[in-house]
Amino acid sequence: MKALTFPKSHRLLRPSDYSKVFDDVQLKVPHRNFLILAAPNNLGHARVGLIFSKKNLRLAVQRNRIKRQVRETFRVQKNLPGLDIIVLGRQGLAQLDNASVESSLNDLWRRVRKKYHQSSADQTAVNSKGTS
User: Fold this and answer.
1) What total of structural domains would you count in the chain?
2) What is each CA distance from 41 to 2, 38, 46, in whole angstroms?
3) Which of 53, 83, 116, 129 has the largest CB neighbor count within 10 A?
């Protein structure tokens, strides 16, 4: 049986990791209850960082529930590109049930992949125009 792990190598751990993403945001994926910011990394796999404030999720139990779901949906994603991703919570998250949060997150991960592939295709087109 495959170990169900979420290793440190797949997490943003230091403030400098978060700063790199905030300073060089290349992908923004908005949602009613979440905002995903992402910047490319050179690791070959995605890493995730979480920011959920007390302003949007008052109780620690609410923040922990949402963080657990974000980590789990991230962990099971296949073929996410090499990005450093920050997931920010917005108001209204506390009222959502677990199924709604999970479906929203799965949709967001799909949109991250799609936007990444679109932006890399656009970048390739720009580079090929500039060299001819």
Assistant:
1) 1
2) 26, 9, 8
3) 83
Give the per-residue pLDDT at 3.
Answer: 60
Q: How far apart are CA 94 and CA 91, in angstroms?
A: 8
Judge whether 1 lies within some domain: no
Instruction: List Cβ neighbours of 119 (8 Å cut-off, separation of 6 or more).
Output: 26, 27
Q: What are 10-66's pLDDT values in tens digits?
A: 999 999 999 999 999 999 999 999 999 999 999 989 999 999 999 999 999 999 999
Please check whether residue 125 lies inside any domain of the structure: no
Q: Which domain holds residue 23?
A: 9-118
Q: Is the pLDDT of residue 130 over 70?
A: no
Query: CATH code at 103?
Result: 3.30.230.10
Task: Give CA–CA dist 21/12, Å, rounded.
Answer: 10
- Asked whether residue 42 is domain-assigned, the answer is yes
pLDDT of residue 121: 76
Closest CA to 105 of 66, 56, 79, 78: 66
